[in-house]
Amino acid sequence: MAYNKQDTDTVSKYSKSSCSTKDATGDENIKFIRHFDGQYSLIDQPTTRQHKAYYFLFIHTLICLSIEMSLRLGQEFPNYQVKTTVGDQKIHQWLGDQWGILFSHPADYTPVCTTELARAAKLAPEFAKRNTKLIGLSCDTVELHREWIEDIHAYADITDQCSKQFPFPIIDDSDRAIATKLGMIDPVETDNEGIPLTARSVFYIGPDKKVKALLLYPATSGRNFDEILRLLDSLQLSQKYPIATPVDWKPGDDVMVPTNVSDETIKEKLPNPVKVKQDLPSGKGYIRTTTLK
């Protein structure tokens, strides 16, 4: 695994041809080498509990500094091979031609995460109506995910036996490979061994496998899944029509027509007339609204 050198104090102090970090006792815990092109590769990985904590923090630091490892809007979501509660999957093939939302949580058997996945399970039919698949992720094993699902069912008050099959898979990222590559590691929250956990990340993936939106919450703040659903509605609507949704927009409300949308496009793509707000001090007619009802 290689990382681009950035012009920062954090990385520049590791500018020798090869070196290692040391803990308070002077023991080496991470060894890596700097290549002639300014990239870094790990020579070996630590094995002790304390050294693993240093290792993941170090990897996270390098990834945050690496431009290549940052997933941006419009980029293709990687076609990871993942181990899930419903078997091994490749992300692109699992999505097919549907929308997808991948969301991570810090850990199984934790209170806030249980409320989040219970809410997601309750809203699963709403996401399905929008041709959207959900998939969760944390740094726990598939076995632990499957056991925890029973608690989620109980918390969500899902008592119908037909509903006992959990409505979406959960990824086993116990080696933190995906979380690290996507910059989803929370440097503050750690497990009982001191190893960083995943933050509350949300990736919206379009049918073209491109990233359409990103959300990132700390472990201490549970997400609002009504907002996650609302954002999905906005994304899908703006894919279908040349519009944008204003502040506090909800499905059924008026939408806005950006200034770069021509009159010809308005006539061709929008079903209803456009209203222009004229009584602005500037006199500029850039606030244009319409309804899609």
Key features?
25% strand; alpha+beta; Thioredoxin-like_sf; 4-stranded antiparallel β-sheet; 293 residues; 5-stranded mixed β-sheet; disordered N terminus; 8 helices; Glutaredoxin; 2 domains; elongated; Antioxidant, Horf6, Chain A, domain 2
Global shape:
elongated
Oligomer: single chain
Give the fraction of residues assigned to helices: 25-40%
CATH topology of the largest domain: Glutaredoxin
Main-sheet strand order equals 9-8-7-12-13
User: Which structural class fits the helix and strand makeup?
Assistant: alpha+beta
Count of DSSP H/I helices? 8
Can you count the beta strands? 16
Count of distinct structural domains:
2
Q: Overall mean pLDDT score?
A: 80
The major pleated sheet works out as: 5 strands, mixed
Could you state the CATH homologous superfamily of the largest domain?
A: Glutaredoxin
How far the N terminus sits from the C terminus, by CA atoms, comes to 51 Å
* Cα Rg: 23 Å
Q: Tell me the name of the CATH class of the largest domain.
A: Alpha Beta
Strand/helix succession: EHEEEHEEHEHEHEHEEEEHEHEE
Strand residue content:
25-35%
What CATH architecture label of the largest domain applies? 3-Layer(aba) Sandwich
Structural account:
The structure is a single chain. The chain is elongated, with a radius of gyration of 23 Å. Helix 4 crosses helix 5 (142-155). Helix content is 30%, strand content 25%. It has two domains: 75-237, 3-Layer(aba) Sandwich (Glutaredoxin); 241-291, Antioxidant, Horf6, Chain A, domain2 (Antioxidant, Horf6, Chain A, domain 2), CATH 3.30.1020.10. The model is unreliable at 1-45 (pLDDT under 50). By secondary structure, the protein is α+β, with helices and mostly antiparallel strands. The chain contains eight helices and 16 strands. Strands 9-8-7-12-13 form a five-stranded mixed β-sheet, with helices on one face. Helix 4 links the parallel strand 7 (99-104) and strand 8. It starts with a strand and ends with a strand.
